[in-house]
Specification:
- With about 450 residues, the chain is an all-alpha fold.
- The protein contains 18 helices and two strands.
- The longest helix is centred in the middle third of the chain and has 35 residues, at about 180-215.
- The radius of gyration is 23 Å and the shape is globular.
- About 35% of the residues are buried.
- It is about 70% helix and about 0% strand.
- It has helices at about 5-20, 25-40, 45-65, 70-90, 90-105, 120-135, 145-150, 165-170, 180-215, 220-250, 270, 280-290, 300-315, 320-340, 350-370, 395-420, 425-430, 435-450; strands at about 220, 390.
- A two-stranded parallel ribbon has the order 1-2.
- The chain folds into two domains: about 5-170, no CATH class; about 180-460, no CATH class.
Length: about 450
Amino acid sequence: MFYNELLFIIIFLLFIIIYRSSNVIYRKVILLIFNSTFLIINDLFSFLLIIVLSIINRIYMLSTKYIAAIKITSLITAAINVIVLIFFKNTQLGAFIYSQKLTYFNSSLLLNRSIPYGISYYIFKSISLIIDFKRKIIGNITFVDCFNYLSYFPQLDSGPIQQSRDYFNNQKLAVKMENYTYYFIKYCWGVFKKRYTSDNLYIVVSQLRSNISSGRNIYFVNYLISIASFSFYVYSNFSGVSDISIALAGFMGLKCRENFKRPYFANSFSDIWKRWHISLYDFLRDYVFYYLNKRNTRKLRLYISILIILILVGAWHDITANYLLFGFIHGVLLIIENLLGSLKINNEFNIRIRVLFKILFVQMIFIGSQSILLMPELSQSPVFNNKLINSISSPNIYNLIAYALLYILPVFVIDFIDEIKNVELYLLQNEGVSKYIVFSVISMLFICLRGKEKPSVYGQF
């Protein structure tokens, strides 16, 4: 049962009616029931694992009353969470155990899943809970609160990674009635990006992967277009599902931080990571970089910390050469950018030209670096195995360009308008948005009825 299926929409609407009309005291129980039901349907193994983690975290909180060495107990509890994540995500034994449990616990819909559903998200949230409690940012919470936080269904598939301080601080804030329009539009826009752009670009990406796997030669121009398609495929997939998640949480009264902010208009490498997978980067900054660089005044340690953080960004996706290299490259780029600084130009026209060229340069490097992630292994890349044909002419090149632009342009144009005019702020401040609602409803219904949905990219993490 996924977020844009008709069955989920009907059940969610009934849930929202009951949840919003209930007393605050009963909302926790209602949310507990819905979270549990959603998890059991999608992955009973994750449901049981979250129960175990909630018990461990609860024992840790209770133990702080009797054990003075809170630093050691918090470190041990966080280490247990990390070990669980690595075991089920990156070891053959963990994968084998999970695959055996799938046979008994799940329907055939999820039998192709190789790791527990949403494990990276709820493990990171568990670590956030441990550290924020140690820092006394949050107080002692009940088992039900801990379970609801870790199993919060809008964020299980593709985040964003909601830090515990944000979750518990915002939980009591109710969404204003006029904001429902904004969240409804955000939900529909997320569905559009996922079903229209991402699912159709998946065809281009799959075709390239198939050609590479079969040992065929790849035309250089086709390869460049496919890399751009892959980048937008990942972006529209992940940001689309993130928008859906943020909208669902918004209907329930929880304000989530944005996970993407128009990354293709970033004008520096540091700006990219303020726009791309923001919640992951913020998590590593607040909970890892903070300790690596605590009370540090030396540049060398700062640069090593930056490199470690970006390598961890890659490792979060998968501990393979592709992702580790991707993280390493971006870590080096951030260090170089920090070393060089920015040149000051006083002429306003030159500033605009410089910003434009910076955006183009940064995006070329950013999109190009994502080509590393196209294939499971680096050795399969046509760049490394001499399968690229350096020729401008290519059969069906114009059809490929037209197809890619057909699905890339709508997302790019809307992001461009949002970058200039801040559409989201406008929607929040203006109630007269009926034309946007009509467009969103028509788009959502049209897209949801088109073909078979492709899997979420980050659902596997």
